[in-house]
Every structure is written in structure tokens, then in C-alpha cells.
Amino acid sequence: MYDVIVIGGGVVGCAIARELSRYRLKLCLLERAEDVCTGTSKANSAIVHAGFDAEPGSKKAIFNVRGSEHKSESFGRLLFRFKHSQALEIWLVQIMGTHKFNAMRF
After folding, report:
1. What mean pLDDT comes out for the span 8-35?
2. What are the tens digits of pLDDT across the range 46-105?
């Protein structure tokens, strides 16, 4: 008998299971594939989203800030190397009947 069963061993399921492992719970992680993170999560580019396009005041913007504040602490606990890099993103908007967005990264 388990206290908690987490269904799905992708990034989110594994993160939930890891967080719950800090408590005195009998925990089970169920994954249908032969290993964790073999579905959509395997295509993760390992880039932490900077939140450059979140609407100010939106939940996405709030969670981007909150996540950014916790990443150094979390990565340290996981013994995970993390390199802060600066990226300048310039968005050019061209209006010719329809909106066309182009992003350039420097």
C-alpha cells in the first residue's frame, strides 16, 4: 500500500516524486516506458526559460519569477551544475497584412 502514486515518469512526474520523497511517505512512481523521461521530456533542451515573453502580471510571469528565484537553490541541492548566461533577445515585428514575428539571439 502506498501513500502516494505518481503517474508518469517525465520531468514533472519525477520532480513531484522527488519533492514528495522529502516526507515520510510510501511513494510509487509509475511509468509505462522502460525508463523515465523517454517521452516528451527526452526532447528537453535543458535551457531554463527566462520568461521573456510572459504578459506582465500573468500567472506565467509570476511563476517565471518564482522559479528563477529558486533555481540556484534547487540545483545546489541536486548537485546539478548550472551556468548563468546572458542572452539578448530582440523581437522584430513586421506588419504586412498579418503579423510576422522573428527572433534573433545574440
Report:
1. 93
2. 666 666 678 888 998 888 878 777 777 777 777 767 666 665 555 555 555 444 444 444
Q: Are 17 and 29 in contact (CB under 8 A)?
A: yes
List active site positions.
Answer: 49
Instruction: Find the Cα–Cα–Cα–Cα dihedral 83, 86, 92, 98, rounded to 10°.
Output: 30
Distance CA(28)–CA(33), nearest Å, equals: 15
Using CA atoms in the order 100, 101, 102, 106, what is the torsion angle rounded to 10 degrees? Answer: 160
Q: Which helix (H) or strand (E) holds 93?
A: strand 89-96
Under 8 Å between Cβ of 62 and 52: no
